[in-house]
Amino acid sequence: PKETEKTQKETFDLINRLKSYTDSVLIQPAGVYPNTEWFRNPEKYGIYLHHNYIKKIRDYPIEPLKPLRLWRPFPFSYSIMGKPAKNVKFSDIVACYERFNKRIRAPKERGGLGIPAIQDYGYIVAKYQNQDPITLSWKLTQFMATRDYNGLRKSLTLIKDILT
Fold it and tell me: What is the tens place of the pLDDT at every residue in 25-45?
């Protein structure tokens, strides 16, 4: 909430300074959950909770294998890039998220940092299989997204054999 070009640049600069200490950066849009400070005081943080928020958030499916643009709209919105929360659409949040992610992922010669978004397990599995973490991460994600349990099982069995 309350993301601006200035705060986004500050975050970009911080990630750039920390780049040598990390292999990957996962960037997610903000979530508003019951019994949190953002839920109790949404106006203070530039957050708008939609009608029937509690029912909608209870039933909201988080789908980490799908790109954010394919998710259902959040049952809340928040102010971003100077736009008041009530006027922010899910597509605005998605656009802001995707733009920032693209900047982090882009190579330095295109103004980015060249940092991939790979879960920790992707690096662990890749290390023990002597594979490129980015390629293997995409392969594991494809196995999960397509429910290719045999492919996933085979990859994880290789890890188990190496570790035992």
Answer: 888 899 999 999 999 999 999
Q: Does pLDDT of 123 surpass 80? A: no
Place of tokens 């290390």: 127
Statement: residue 122 has pLDDT above 90 = no
Residue position matching structure tokens 């957050």 = 47
Q: CA 107, 113, 119, 125: dihedral to nearest 10 degrees? A: 60
Cα gap 52→47, rounded to integer Å: 15
Single pTM value for the model: 0.78
d(CA 48, CA 77): 5
Helix runs in 1-148, H state only:
5-18, 37-40, 53-58, 90-105, 120-129, 133-145
For residue 27, which phi and psi values (nearest 5 degrees)? Answer: -120, 130
Cα–Cα distance between 1 and 30 in angstroms, integer? 7
Number of CB atoms found within 10 A of residue 8's CB: 16
> What are residue 59's phi and psi, to 5 degrees?
-100, 5
